[in-house]
Design brief:
The complex is a heterodimer of chains A (315) and B (328). Chain A has 315 residues and is an all-alpha fold. Chain A has 13 helices and no strands. Chain A has a domain of 199 residues: MetI-like (MetI-like fold). Chain B has 328 residues and is an alpha/beta fold. Chain B contains 10 helices and 12 strands. In chain B, the strands form 2 sheets. Chain B has an 8-stranded mixed beta sheet with strand order 6-7-8-3-9-10-12-11, sandwiched between helices. A 4-stranded antiparallel beta sheet of chain B has the order 2-1-4-5. In chain B, helix 4 packs across helix 5. Classes of the chains: A mainly alpha (315), B alpha/beta (328). At the A-B interface, helix 10 and helix 11 of A face helix 3 of B.
């Protein structure tokens, strides 16, 4: 009976397989990545977060095409009496209302999302690239090189980075590029430590020994054997790094040192919203805050999902 | 048998590791762990040399030292007259295609993120970078077919194969550059007995077909007996005995070899029960602080006073048997 039940399905598959084999076709393998993808897709919270995050990215990229207002024009009528005239409204097209200076808040949030997300992504990207290469070289080469490289990291880490970041912004002027440099300078340190630890454990695995015995040059071993096997950990850490970058940028902007007018970011918008909270214009705080919190939650859920999907203990 | 010039000549090879004492200051001298302490042997073309000994006696370290995977303290490893240990990294890389290695854990020795096609192709791509992709693929298919893996599996990943299949893939990877020597580091100890036989028979077939030399490391004496022409018994980084395989099993020269052979299980419950095992007293001494003179004397049933005074040289007992013992 069971035979009958599975037959329609298995017959087709078997026939396909047989044809494949007889034609000398190659059987496709299922990589560890494919396995992880399957587990990730099965994780509802993570998939929902991916969807929400995609929407937020779409919002930041194309949101300004939807509205008729731009982020610069000041509505002089509203400016003095934002509380009375500037509330969110569906009828006049100012969906998120106005900010304190009479600009359309929706357009401002789009602009802020762009900057916040790009700071997060670029910062995490720099951290991942530098940290992965630095850590894997230190771990794989080992010995004195490792000692020097990691002591250097220790020294950098012992300097309070917020202090350095603030100093940089004060000394070299407040600009987005300086913010990128400042965040990038510090964010790779943790990454390199994590990667080095992973490399040390990978280095003694037999497949790396096998590559050494074959005579594969060191840089190829690092790039072809070490890094792909590290990638699971790196990807998980990177997804947790993005919100951390966004938080850092927001904090700096909240302090007033980061992004400067007329540019804005979630942190800067939240900061403005907080300042005008007392006047009863709560929407100025609520909208940027919502985006900020939702994005960070999404990244955390995705990070969790990735970790579950890539966890070697599940294999 | 005519004397052929040896493929590999190892002379007085020493591998010492630095071991820091716990809590030592940076300037205190480190302890030396003598993993391999003065091993010499020859390997002729087409010959199989078995290396046996208990865990920690330096079998794997010896193999890795010859492959230049661990730094050596002293000695020579001559490959057709050229010292491998003196070579620059570049020269050594060129020689690596002549000697390949098979590892103990079949699955762990294959990169989990690569398809077996990529894994098997790696030595070829490393040593013959000029080959075009279809040529590489043809070679890979050919060699996989030879070791009994269906060539249409090349896009599969190592975790989709069984242990025996993985070991065949490991063998394919070693064979693809047509080496003259394959060092097998306990290639079957992680496999089931029935699979062990298949893998060993495959190795023996390949050896006959291609005229390979093998260095076969194992702790299972019956496996070594099956495959080896000569057997080297290591004890605490020292050679206890080197002799023709049949001679070694018929009349072991060194008391340690005797003890090892007496411990081989017999696949017959009756005989196994009645067999007399020569048990050795005490544990293996630490290679950090090996006994003076003959390293085996602390556990040797026939040790005398002079065993503690000088290290016994390898003595030729005839019939291709060399033994390092004062009393034989």
């Amino acid at each position: 009976m069971t035979d009958k039940l599975v037959q329609p399905f298995s017959q087709k598959r078997t026939a396909e397989l047989a044809e494949n084999l007889s034609a000398g076709g190659e059987v496709k393998g299922r990589s560890l990545w494919a396995d992880a993808r399957r587990r990730f897709v099965a994780n509802r919270a993570a998939m929902a977060s991916v969807v929400v995050l995609v929407l937020i990215f779409a919002f930041s990229l194309f949101g300004d095409h939807v509205t008729q207002f731009d982020n610069e024009t000041i509505d002089w009528d509203v400016m003095g009496s934002v509380k009375e005239l500037g509330a969110p409204s569906l009828t006049n097209g100012h969906w998120f209302g106005f900010d304190e200076s009479g600009r359309d808040l929706y357009a401002r949030v789009v602009q802020g999302s762009r900057i916040s997300l790009s700071v997060g992504l670029v910062g995490a990207f720099i951290a991942v690239m530098v940290g992965t290469l630095y850590g894997s070289v230190a771990g794989f080469v080992g010995g004195r090189v490792d000692g020097v490289m990691m002591r250097l990291v220790d020294i950098f880490m012992s300097i309070p980075y917020m202090f350095v970041l603030i100093l940089l912004l004060v000394v070299f002027g407040r600009s987005i590029s300086m913010l990128f440099v400042g965040i990038g300078l510090t964010a790779w340190l943790d990454m390199s430590r994590i990667v080095r630890g992973q490399t040390l454990s990978l280095k003694n695995r037999e497949f790396v020994e096998a590559a050494v015995a074959i005579g594969v040059p060191t840089h190829r071993i690092i790039l072809r054997h070490i890094v792909p096997n590290l990638l699971g950990v790196v990807v998980v850490y990177a997804t947790l790094l993005v919100p951390q970058m966004i938080l850092t940028e927001s904090f700096i902007s909240f302090l007033g040192l980061g992004v400067q007018e007329p540019d804005t970011s979630w942190g800067a918008l939240i900061s403005e919203g907080v300042k005008s909270m007392n006047y009863g214009t709560l929407w100025q705080l609520a909208f940027p805050l919502c985006f900020f919190v939702i994005t960070i939650f999404c990244f955390f859920f995705i990070g969790d999902g990735l970790r579950d999907a890539l966890d070697p203990k599940d294999r | 048998m005519t004397e052929q010039s040896p493929l590999l000549t190892v002379r007085d090879l020493k591998v010492w590791f630095d071991v820091k004492r716990p809590g030592a200051m940076p300037w205190t001298p480190v302890d030396k762990l003598k993993a391999v302490d003065g091993v010499s042997f020859d390997l002729k073309p087409g010959e199989t040399l078995g290396i046996v000994g208990e865990s920690g006696c330096g079998k794997s370290t010896l193999a890795r030292a010859v492959m230049r995977m661990v730094p050596t303290e002293a000695g020579q490893a001559l490959w057709l007259g050229q010292d491998l240990l003196e070579m620059s990294k570049r020269e050594m890389r060129a020689h690596r295609k002549e000697m390949q290695m098979i590892f103990q854990d079949p699955l762990a020795s294959l990169d989990p993120r690569m398809t077996i096609g990529q894994i098997v192709a790696e030595p070829l791509k490393t040593h013959f970078p000029g080959l075009s992709t279809p040529e590489v693929k043809d070679h890979v298919r050919e060699v996989l077919d030879r070791v009994g893996i269906l060539p249409n599996m090349i896009n599969r990943y190592p975790h989709e194969f069984s242990g025996g299949q993985c070991q065949r893939i490991g063998i394919a990877r070693a064979l693809i550059v047509k080496p003259r020597l394959i060092i097998c580091d306990e290639p079957v100890s992680a496999l089931d007995v029935s699979i062990q036989a298949q893998v060993i028979n495959l190795l023996m077939e390949l050896q006959e077909e291609l005229g390979l030399s093998l260095i076969f490391i194992a702790h299972d004496l019956s496996v070594v007996k099956h495959i080896s022409d000569r057997v080297m018994v290591l004890y605490l980084g020292n050679v206890a005995e080197i002799s023709e395989a049949s001679q070694l099993y018929r009349s072991p020269g060194h008391p340690y070899t005797e003890a090892l052979i007496s411990a081989v299980p017999i696949p017959d419950p009756q005989a196994e029960r009645e067999k007399e095992v020569m048990l050795l007293d005490r544990d293996l001494p630490s290679p950090l602080n090996p006994p003076s003179g003959c390293v085996f004397r602390t556990r040797c049933p026939i040790a005398e006073e002079r065993c503690g005074q000088s290290r016994p040289p390898l003595k030729d007992l005839g019939k291709g048997q060399q033994v390092a013992c004062h009393l034989r």
